[in-house]
Amino acid sequence: MEIAVKKFDALTIYELYDILQLRSEIFVVEQDCVYQDLDGKDAKALHVLGWHDGKIVAYTRCFPPGVYFEAASIGRVVVEVNHRKYGFGHDIMKASIEAIENHFGTNSIKLSAQTYLKRFYESHGFSIIGEEYLEDGIPHIAMITT
Known about the structure:
Blueprint: E1 2-7, H1 13-30, E2 46-52, E3 55-63, E4 72-79, H2 88-104, E5 109-114, H3 118-122, E6 126-135, E7 138-145
Parallel strand pairs: 4-5
Antiparallel strand pairs: 1-2, 2-3, 3-4, 5-7, 6-7
């Protein structure tokens, strides 16, 4: 998988369309969750894109400290369903953590993880903080890097 890190204004309209399509495909259709994906925060984020065979198949958006949480954060972590078996989720997370370290100068990262993925995030150095909660009707848990 090829990975690129881009600011919002560096995304092409085709990349932006593909990102929004992928996020909708997974978060709205696959997870059957009606929520406001276009939240006005994309312009403040670094976008980490993963391509395979010319198609965006993995993605995250990363924020500096103080934008989403007090710590830097990673969100909208997504891998296209037919590409999950290749470990692209791990690749995109490693690239996202590295992007935060390189662009924001910190390794303190917080995220709101879907609870069923807590072991995945633990494998990338995150630990659970607090209690499970519902976000858009889906069980989540706050996690931070340790």
